[in-house]
């Protein structure tokens, strides 16, 4: 082969590898490790409102599964806030075992966490310098992530703070 042919060959190989990498980033990978099937879910799936709607049920299902694994009952919320500040949002919710317990409306608490994040664009209950407003509780258990066209949120209420955060993180990771 001459030098020109080698250069063309290298360019083609680079393009094929790069496009394969992009495809891999946007598709789940299923593998078998020690007899167990695992699925690696790609991150950063949510690019806009349309992609949020597409992947929100999957993220909620993952949160439900994690809640069940931890034996936690409560309410899971996934949301998308378009733009740089909160003027509207889309949310979806799933009950994990029970919407309430003997003392609390878990969905109400979950939406309080979500509204805290909508107001601050920070994880719920983390801004200790801000006065907790009426309708908010200042509880942790909601996580927010900036994406190109806005923010995605994942919230759980029903367990201990660590459990709520663990379940919310699973939902956020799925998006």
Give the CATH level 1 class of the largest domain: Alpha Beta
What is the strand tally? 6
Shape: globular
Mean pLDDT: 82
Terminal CA distance: 47 Å
The CATH topology name of the largest domain reads Beta-Lactamase
Largest sheet: 4 strands, antiparallel
Question: At the fourth CATH level, what is the homologous superfamily of the largest domain?
Answer: Haem-degrading domain
Number of domains: 2
CATH architecture title of the largest domain: 2-Layer Sandwich
Strand content: 15-25%
Give the strand order, joined by hyphens, for the main sheet.
Answer: 4-3-6-5
Q: Which structural class do you get from the secondary structure elements?
A: alpha+beta
Summarize the helix and strand pattern as letters. Answer: HEEHEEHEEH
Helical content band: 40-55%
Q: Measured on Cα atoms, how large is the radius of gyration?
A: 20 Å
What does this entry look like structurally?
- The chain is α+β, with helices and mostly antiparallel strands and 175 residues long.
- The protein has two domains: 3-33; 45-174, 2-Layer Sandwich (Beta-Lactamase).
- The protein is built from four helices and six strands.
- The strands form two sheets. It has a four-stranded antiparallel sheet with strand order 4-3-6-5, with helices on both faces. It has a two-stranded antiparallel ribbon with strand order 1-2.
- A hairpin with a 2-residue loop joins β5 and β6 (150-157).
Characterize this entry briefly.
By secondary structure, the protein is α+β, with helices and mostly antiparallel strands. It contains four helices and six strands.
